[in-house]
Design a protein that fits this description.
Length: 127
């Protein structure tokens, strides 16, 4: 029997996902080509993130602090963006970003080009 949204998501009748196979999750199915493209995209992101510093002395404490607050840190390869810094700051702090850091999120990223988002969030948790 086809999934209810098979036509909506472009599933074909003979596809295992359209028959309610294990590949269906909330109406979505992923072909082997989709999985391959996703894996390649992830490898590219990880490779792009290899330029970020990882030799932080506080890194072990950054693994423990989020557990206490019930959150997960971003991966080491995730690039810091102004929007991501604002989101994490808003989630963890009550004060204005510029009050705490003395500059805008955009300027903070420009000043620290080799710092991953994980390090910024770890430092937010420490203070």
């Amino acid at each position: 029997m086809p999934a209810p949204d098979a036509a909506r998501y472009g599933l074909v009748e003979d596809h295992p996902a359209a028959r309610g196979g294990a590949a269906v999750s909330a109406g979505w199915s992923f072909t082997p080509e989709d999985r391959k493209r996703a894996a390649e995209a992830l490898k590219a992101k990880v490779a792009a993130g290899a330029r970020y510093r990882r030799d932080w002395l506080d890194a072990p404490s950054w693994d423990l602090l989020p557990r206490e607050q019930g959150i997960r840190l971003p991966a080491w390869w995730v690039a810091p963006t102004a929007a991501a810094l604002r989101m994490w700051h808003k989630r963890l702090r009550a004060e204005a970003f510029s009050t705490v850091y003395g500059c805008s999120p955009t300027h903070l990223v420009e000043l620290n080009p080799d710092v991953p988002l994980r390090a910024f969030v770890g430092q937010m948790l420490e203070s």
